[in-house]
């Protein structure tokens, strides 16, 4: 009997049962694989919201990164959770400062094409003063030991994070100058963000307008008596017609009332502080009294004693004006201005004032005074002035050097090499955040004299203080940028 082959299909209920088992096994396997994958790639959650390493400024990091010298785009600053925001070594902590973003280019022989360098703010963030028209009500009340107490800043870190400011002087009455547009390009090309203009020159102010370059404008001596006796309206008219008609007031940091009036203009020195009071009231009426400060550049001859600096004292010949001037500066939180020229100290007394000490030379013999070490005449003169101020009861007034330099010709000690050494020494100290032994880590704001060699001067060397010649080429050789 032949064997029969059974080819009939499975019963329907059995087929459905087997299919259900296969489907269930597939689902279980897929779920197990999914859990394994999720466990392997699961990451902890990092919450960066509300964390700000930029000094407490909240907001979008990609649009507000103020660290200088960084060219990275916004995606690189926000995509890496391991990166932190470090302060740039060239950032400035003041603004006053502020200047802050300095050009990295060094001196060149001629002005290259214009580049923007207008980030400096340059004004002190001082407190607003009270209102009123008379002197007693319009000036802030004086606090003990002065209201501009820079000694409190000594706790701030030194070095480049406390970078100081260096500007340049130009524009004396009768001085021959290149075209204003050339001057502005020269300033920009070397990163110069602060200037002292000896007198208000409309064409120069107009050329500087909008550049961001901060300006100290001089009030000429032949205007002092008129401003002293003319009242607020007279001073307002003078401000508007001589300065504010040509330049944005936000670029003006100081009015330098006269220049060395106590030394050169003794006949009108009694008008100095009254003129400053009236100018202050005029600025106050415009709401500019906290952004545009007032002071008067003094010659170092106002000091009767410089060495040792701990014995610094004002000459009794000038105390009648110095004392009300110091009170005005303290009340308005302004700096005392002084022109310091170690060159003059040397040529007047070469036997007792060593040349190398004036030029910041490393081999110069240091001066020891009350436990402080001095390595240059510049520091000696600044600290002697600070001591003299303290002796008059004002410990909080800062010093601003409104003119310093070294001539390149016209005297046996006036050479290009000496001028380069001196200017380099001043710039390195200030821009590296170095103060004086009395106020370390508090760099003095300095204005170099002068931008150009001059065509005027009683002594031949007075014509050769320029950093540049009229064609923009260097008169001195320095490799430090502003």
From TrEMBL:
Positions of the UniProt region annotated as Disordered: 51-167
UniProt entry tagged with the keyword Signal: yes
Top-level taxon: Eukaryota
Compositional bias of kind Low complexity: 59-127, 134-159
Signal recorded as keyword: yes
One Pfam family from the record: Glyco_hydro_17
Keyword annotations from UniProtKB, A to Z: Glycosidase, Hydrolase, Signal
SUPFAM superfamilies: (Trans)glycosidases
Entry's Gene Ontology BP terms: carbohydrate metabolic process
Segment forming the signal sequence: 1-32
GO molecular function: glucan endo-1,3-beta-D-glucosidase activity
Similarity section: Belongs to the glycosyl hydrolase 17 family.
Protein name, per record: Glucan endo-1,3-beta-D-glucosidase
